[in-house]
Amino acid sequence: MSDNTSFDGQVVMVVGAANGIGRATIGLLKSRGARVIALDLNAPALEAVKVEFSLGEEQVKLLDVSDQDAVVKAVSEIHRAEGRIDALVNSAGMTGPTNRRLNTIDWPEFEKTLRVNLFGAIWLTQNVIPIMQGQKYGRIVHVSSIAGKEGNPGMAPYNTSKAGMIGFIKGVGKEVAPEGITINAVAPAVIRTPMNADTSDETLKYMIARIPMGRVGEAEEVAETICFAASKACSFTTGFTFDASGGRATY
Q: Domain 11-244: which topology?
């Protein structure tokens, strides 16, 4: 009996690979046989990932997901070099302004958060779907957030970007459902990652107080859910947002 959680022979793009959830996901994917292509904007951290996971030169790429042309180029180059892209995992993201009321946030700050968290997800999806349609197989997983379901006060740009991502995935999931492609989100609550290092104590306390398990999540815990959603085993779930919130969201 074949193991549908195995990634043997599969090429998996991991965007936002250099830290936190992306980095933990690479470790799990590799342990399950995937050929991982790691993409991130943080060059030193990406180099560390390359060393840690023994990735070849062609398996690491610098990418700014807020640049549409760069996204188009990266996906095209990977497809040309590898001949296939079986799964896309996108955990690229930024918190944007935190602990700030809406009327104190200027538009460039707001838009930057949208470009990284939402527009990047859209552009990545647009560019891998035709490849997956040609293969009649594909898995797409974007890391959203509990903030996209419930909203955290003082984080309007982040809430908006992650809610937009969830809505985007719902519709696209239905579009590609007959074509062997699934697209899902994973919505973590607060996770112990470098991205949260700059989040104010006040905001962190607010978020942890709402988690029934009473703790932050670990990147490795989220990686388990991501790897399921990126695998052949996830064959009858699409357009869905998986919970990784310690019980904060149960829908």
A: Rossmann fold (3.40.50)
Q: Read off the pLDDT of residues 208-240 as tens digits, 9 standing for 90 and up.
A: 899 999 988 999 999 999 999 999 999 999 999
Furthest-apart CA pair in the chain: how many Å?
A: 58
Q: d(Cα 7, Cα 148) in Å, to the nearest integer?
A: 29
Say how far apart CA 189 and CA 138 lie, in whole Å: 27
Query: Which amino acid, 235?
Result: S
Number of other residues whose CB lies within 10 A of the CB of residue 227? 25
Over residues 88-145, the pLDDT tens digits come to 999 999 999 999 999 999 999 999 999 999 999 999 999 999 999 999 999 999 999 9
Is residue 195 within 8 Å of 147, Cβ to Cβ?
no
The Cα 161–Cα 155 span in angstroms is: 10
Both tokens of 210, joined, read: 């709402």
Displacement of CA 97 from its chain's centroid (Å): 20
Tokens of residue 216, six digits: 């932050």
Residues near 2 by beta carbon (within 8 Å), at least 6 away in sequence: none
- Among residues 137, 158, 206, 251, which one is catalytic? 158
Nearest to 12 by CA among 56, 67, 78, 74: 78
158 catalytic per annotation: yes
This prediction has a pTM of: 0.95
DSSP letter at 80? Answer: H
CA dist 133 and 122 (Å) reads: 17
- Give kind and range of the element (H or E) at residue 90: strand 87-90
